[in-house]
Records
---
Amino acid sequence: MGLGAYVAVSAALFALGLVAILARRNVIYILMGIEMILNAANINFVAFNRFGTMQLDGQMFAIFTIILAAAEAAVALAIVLNVFNLFDSVKPSEADLLRE
Amino acid sequence: MDARQVALQRLFYGALGVLSLAALGVGLAMAGASGLAFALFAVMTLGGGLMCVWERSVVRSAFCLMATFTGIAGFFVLLEADFLAMAQILIYVGGILALLLFAVMLTPPDLGERRLSRVFAALVLVGGATLWLGIEVARTARWAVHGAPLDGRAEGVSSAERIGVGFLAVDQYVVAFELAAVVLTVALVAAVYIARRRKADLEPEKGDAV
Amino acid sequence: MSLAFDPAVDFALLLAVLAIPLAGYTLQIFLRRKLPHGDKLLTAGMFVVMCLTVYFGAKGLHAAYSGERFFHHSSEAGLEFGWLYTAGTVPDSMNIVMGVLYDPLGAAMLAVVGIVSFCVHLFSIGYMHGDKRYPIFFANISLFTFAMLGLVLADNLLVLFIFWELMGAMSYLLIGHFSHDPSQPFFHRWATWASKKAFLTTRIGDVCLFIGIFMLWDHFHTLRFTELWEHARLAVVENGGAFPAWMTWAGLFVFGGTVGKSAQFPLHIWLPDAMAGPTPVSAMIHAATMVAAGVFLLGRMYPLLSPEVLSVVTMVGATTALFAATMGLVVYDLKAVLAYSTISQLGFMVAGVGLGGVVAGMFHMTTHAFFKACLFLSAGSVIHGCHHVQDMRVMGGLRKKMPITFACMLICTLAIAGVPFFAGFFSKDRIIQAAFLRVLDSRHFDGWSLYALIALSVAAALTAFYMFRLIFLTFYGEYRGNLEHHRFSESLARTGYEGPDPHEHAEPVVAIADHGHGHGEHGAHGHHEDAHHGHHAQPQVAHAAAPAHVAHAVHAHAEHGAHDAHGHEPHESPRVITIALAILALLGVFGGHFWLFEPHKVLHAHPWFEQLVTPASMYGEEVAHWMAPEPTGHELEHHEHLLHQSHNLALIVSSAVALLGIGLAFLFYIVRPDVPGRIVAALGQVYTVVRRKYYIDEFIDATVLRANWALTRLLKWLDENVVDGLVKLVARLNKLGGSFAAWFDKTFVDGAVNAVALASQVFGAAFRLVQTGRIQQYAAFAMGGALLTAAWLILA
């Protein structure tokens, strides 16, 4: 399949990840959405690497992305737990202290 | 769940199944075996993603996410990034998904939540717009790279070795590698610190019968 | 002190003459509490004034006897006061420069005023003793003197007018002297009202005079007397020897001033009621000064009076003389008789001026001043001696009780009657002579002259009659003041009282004597009847109750006698009074012609006045010549013949009428006292009409005053509704504007402000939706923005 297919898939996964972030009322989904978006980016990187160059720049970038996604997931989990402790709810709309 | 919702759900999953099969068929038809493989992994990825978004239960969403990750690993394999595929499965499925499951376990479910929020339409629209944009770009852009797969692979050098060399070679990504290590360490400490138990949590609540 | 005229010194002295009474007034008004003897101080000042004025009169006489022209203006001494300078700034502008004019007429008047004023001051010390406003009275008469002196010394018409008005104001104050004493309700009201009447009536004359002044100014652009005379002469000469029409009108208006001030018919109405003032005031005002001012004005303005004006003047004067004399016959109040005689004599003076005898009119003015002042003061002395009783019916036989007063009064009555050798004879004779001159001269004869001649002669006879009636009723017979009423009427009948018995008839005769006493002048309320029953609130004495009232009053008066601290008997007045009387009586004898040294020439010699004051000396040769061109040749003979004829005829007629009058009075009141009563009974209604002063006051009340009140009411309505209405309208418009502005402000201005606030709120509410604190929303917006940007960048 051509590069375009992979880009399309990546776009679709990105859109899904976006919807998961925006439209679900649970902070876990935000985490999941972020992961999906990162993965979509990864697909793009690797696809372009495969179809564009003999070097492994794209794959390297993808590896670093994975690393950072892992680190970020850990910290995000900790934050989520803190938020849950503070607001006693998993709904992100409850954490609205910045409001007005 | 009342009957209407049950019916809706059955309809949804039925449609999803049919679409998947159709996609498989299309893939096979377009590019033979590789096409079929691509379609299969696409179904896994996107189907998993869709179900993740759609599912009411968080746990089920998490497991659908696992399917997504796996599908992406399949893509990596198809794209001859075998080390990356392995890393994907190890880290994402083995690590991040586990974390997510911990998070799911530590937080109560929100049973009162309807499937999607009230501004569902607008948000899906956002997603749809993004999708459309992506597809437009994909379709109409003239890539700087040619769209045909490259066939010249380096002989006998697996990508893992190449990646490893890349991490350590002074003229390649050694600095990024070291920094990534630092970031991981910091993230580890930070996560532990942020999620530490506080004195207020340890002390018994007032009024409790001791 | 020489008798030559030195401008530098003499004008300064003249100004001193003016300044002393004014200073006296100021001192008395402002320092009267610190000056216990202010009255004596003022009188002393007036003595100085009298001496100075007599001195100046002597100077004038000296000049006249030496044949010099005695005519001096203060510019010779450099004393001129520029009062108003507008020349050069606007067209038709004037400079009003005040100076002092000292000419023969002025000299004579000055001496007269000085002497009479001093005598009045002296008299008032005794007469007004104990009055509540004694110091103010003296201040007022000093100021009055100042006003008269100023008028005499004025060198232009405007200054004369200023002092004229000042005298009007002073007459108001002086006549109303008793109006400040509410303890005597009758007098209080009468004085208030009489002072207003005097002031307002003379005011009508003043308005006429002012119009006349305007007309003269408009044509001549000067008001100085010397210039006016010259301009008048030129105007007539340019007009071909006839007076221009406008000048006739101006002359008539100026005469209007005299009609008011000198109480000619029809503006004579104020003078009898001016008796509400104290007697010294009557002496000043009615004898010497204020009423004389009108005649003085005629004298000053004589060259400007055209023959038509002079005919009018003659007619008015003669009519007044006769008319007032008839009214003097029937009054009982001492002062009322003298008031009517004043009006009558003023008529003589005015008629004299009109008949061509300017000098004669002025001469009578000066002699009249002397003997009328003496008469008034003697009457005051009688009133004072009889404890402020004024009605002649309650007097009688005072000859023995008040000899000095009697003597003075008799002398002056002889003077006023025109008995030869006394002062009045010479002046009256001159007037009759002027009348005869005109009647006999076939070229200048007109009906008015004949009418005047007859009227004046009859008036002279009547004057003699009623004046001697006064003497007989007051000083002869037996004293009636302390009689019970039945003997009272008998005694009255014996004295020739001519009217109905006051006790028997319901004639509205008010109480004869007020039983109150004290030293103010309580009314002889015989006056009340003579007073004007105007529409002003008057003490309406119930007519029906009159007899009882009268009887009671007379009875009460009789009873009071026992308690009277003064003793009930009339007595002679204190020396202060009698000295003043004596001075004036002396002048009443010799004031006309000092014949003491040459008595045999008395009937043909020229009196001092005629030597001092001649048309040439008054107006200058040119003007005098123009007014009365010297006849020559055949004309001269004719003229001399006429003069001689008229002189003799006048002599005969004036002596005859005087003796006729005196004889009749003697007949009616001494010999056959029952006759007057029978005549009155026969006349019946006629008597009542005369007694009621020909109902003139009622007529004026019904016409003029009612019209005036209607006008007043109209103006009041206009003022209240139109003028105030306009003001209220403006206020309402203002309010309307204000409420509109308020509405505008609330709606638009506040609205704008509110709109801004509202916009702010709206925008805030709108933007608040962005700031929800929800991360998913933030993410959504961010993604939306990124999407748009990407779409634009990539696809555009």
---
Amino acid sequence: MSLPDNPVPGGAESHDDEDSPRARAEAQWRAAFEAAPLRDGAFETMSGIPLAAVHGDPPYPGQFPYTRGIYPSMYRSRLWTMRLFAGMGTAADTNMRFKRLLEAGGTGLSTAFDMPTLMGRDSDHPWAVGEVGRAGVAVDTIADMEDLFAGIDLSGVSTSMTINGPANILMAMYIVTGERGGTERRRLSGTIQNDILKEYQAQKEYIFPPRPSVRLVTDLIRFTTAEMPRWHPVSISGYHIREAGSTAAQELAFTLANGFAYVEAATAAGLDVDDFAGRLSFFFNSHIDFFEEIGKYRAARRIWARWMRDRYGARHERSLQLRFHTQTAGVSLTAQQPEVNIARVATQALAAVLGGTQSLHTDSYDEALALPTEQAARIALRTQQVIAHETGAPSVADPLGGSAYVEWMTDEMERRATEVFDHLDKLGEGSILEGVYEGIANGYFTGEIADSAYRFEREVNAGRRIIVGVNAYTEGDDGDTPILYIDDDVEAQQLRRLAEVRRQRDAAAVTAALDTLAAEAADPTVNLMPPIIDCVRVEATEGEIVGALEGVFGTYTEPAVV
Amino acid sequence: MTVEPTGAPAPEHPAPPPSNPAGSPPDDVAALFARTRNGDRRALGRLLTYTEGGGPLADAVAASAWPLTGGAHVVGVTGAPGVGKSTLTDRLAQVAIDDGRRVAILAVDPSSPLTGGAILGDRVRMGSAAAAGGPFVRSMASRGQSGGLALAALGAVRLLDAAGHDQIFVETVGIGQVEVDIARTADTTIVAVSPGWGDAVQANKAGLLEMADIFVVNKADRAGAADARRDLEHMLDLGHHGDWRPPVVLAVATTGDGADELFKHVGEHRRHLRDHRSEGDRRARQVAEEMRRRLHRWVDVLVAQPSGRAAELFTEVAAGRLAPSLAARRLAGELGRADGAGAETGG
Amino acid sequence: MTGPAAGTAGPQAERHHDRHRRQPVRVVLAKLGLDGHDRGLKVVARMLRDAGLEVIYLGLRQTTESILLAVEQEDADVIGLSIHNGGHLTLAPRMVDAVRAAGLVVPVVVGGIVPDVDLERLAEAGVFAVLGPGASAAEVAETVRAAAAARRI
């Protein structure tokens, strides 16, 4: 291992006064860097040239406003987390996969739920036909959640659950599963997506109208703040906004605006901003326009830090630092010549790393066709490993910082996002939260996203934008990619499981718990987590709990078309 | 469509159901109309297409429908984009259905002025439209012809009336001339506004005070709803209205709050028209207005694309053989005696 | 267009298919089931609008029944179904069967990612056409117009 004496080139020979801002920033950075642990690795080029940990001008990585990264040492301390999303079939199927993953040394479990679960519907709901266990695991009751984590010590893993509309219910199921397995809730660790605002804007997996839904989000923030210090209650997601067709700047702006909205909602519910802001995290897309993406991540950190400090009065450093997960752009994958997607994913993954992501999911090249095969998923993981261990990209923090182009792009992203914030601030008469509500109600978000998607489509159509294998270089598509088909038996198994639970539970206790929940839901000051946990405990189904809440909150339908 | 008598694209296409005997001519307005009277949605859907298309088919439909009209109470629902008209109309329709009415909704949206195409999205916001036992909902694009649209919409309303719907809602977007025209053909007009929507000057400019029989402040769970109501009441204090003072109702269409009250006022306004014998007057005015419109439209078409005698007279004038004033007078005189069957009346 | 003096053409004179020379094609666009990916549906709605068609947009979470109801009331010429969850082999035939069972002759066009191996099965099931992610605006409009023409056979 070769760490140069002077990690910041020019620093030692610098003629700056010791008290100059530059010298102070450098000294501060050096102290922080030296205090950080370093992972094993040769921090030199493949030709043996030693590398400074950071180059260029202050503020350095780890320094406000964190444009250059939130840690002084970045990937020299720890590589990003290579997270892969798993879940399909029944809970028992996914449980086996989880165990294999843990045996292989993994510590993080990432759960994908099937469509009915995401929409708060039971597997025997008429909507669910053909969807049960298909794109993720089916969870109807606490019994399924217990199957999912059977034999796994929840105090020793970090679990990520991708769920939004019914997040509180799945959280309650996880809590009760932990409880029954001997892990108290304060020792549970993980993340739940729980970002409902982007559902109205982009992903469309909403259940209730926005205001009661945001109440459920803040209920979960309040609950975890009080009782689950190791849990991240919201992962504010731009990924789906981008997939729905937004531009990079819109993804940035809408996502951060949603983040501000949750901060406003949680503080309005009585929390101090520093009590929860450090446990908020973000989830961005990595699309194919390399430098635009990098500018987007850098701008995101800068905007968040400034707004949290200046507008929301956060004081803790952690509250100002934007941490994010990245996934490569599923929408950029082509069904034509799908192997070419491997090159796209590699480029996108590199952008995320150069942009300073904390964790990364790489898509499998066959995802435009079907769910990934095991071989395709392995190539996706290998792609990250090549970037981590062969390219040298992680040796230097923010390696593109100081590039005139990248700095300009970062400023431009910030400028465009600021225009959106100004618009929402005006719509909401001084409240971003109200502005977001209004933007949802008047079709602003869906309209902007659809306009961008249509503009892109027209450019591709007109040949002004080349998509390799789609509108150019189309020869050589053998159309012979292996495709994964899901066993139809899953649905039947899950229906039997659900019927069995319904039959053997105490029906009177279920009705009583649901009635209590409905009554509590009518009072907006009550935190609904405890009554939802009570419902889960007596084996009320997800659909029944959603039904009780729908009776009070109503059901949402999209107000505006385009 | 069921009315297709001949080959289906797929050979295994099953025989049409008995309600739709194969062999009935597709454009047989009388047969379609008879089926419509029996509650056949498809036949009504097709006749509405004819009505929308204008021309002789539309006139034939109108002629069949006319003797059977008059039973429906027609309610116009209008307001600026984004105030929640569709959702509100959906809620009203639901209340009316629960009250035992047969309900139809005509939802009018603008066409793209550039391409003539349109995205008609009102059904998205009409949950009841998707359900069996819900209202009959028809979306209509303006097709870029304001005068023609008002007539096509009127024709559609008459047809929905003749088909046995006793409560018809006509939803239009915006507050322009088209909306005013369409509103004039309604028995009761509801104008929807939202909180923060604004000041008296704006409302007066838009001519809302004359247009509205009922005001509804939608999204009344938002700040400013009470202010909007107060402003409207204040304007009503200042303005003069006959013996019906438009009520101002607060509603939240997304939850359905206020829909019952709104529908109650719709019923009261209808009773008011009846009690004051103004219903008959209003109808008489409406049909006179319709005739005026059709006449205007007819002359417009004649001027734009002269044919027959009109073409001759234009030629005479162009050749300098006849004074324009004289030619116009001569044509107008002949028009007064003409049989107008077959004239272009709609879109 | 006929002038006021052009005579008294009877209602039988205009055949059903003639109206489409003067009136825009009407197409119902919808998604079946829980799948919330509506990007493609919205892009196609705009493409068709800009090609001069009238789109009756039903959007997300429709059932075969709600689509049929709309087709009848709106006198639609074509059903456009967007499928992005891999359920095309289940959902598209279900829609076609529902249309036939109702005695309608309204073609179903499917948009979405359909692997080549499944195209034949959809054609056998009676789907009029499948528009993949690479389809141009012109192809989309042409396909829907061709479907509308097939409706009127």
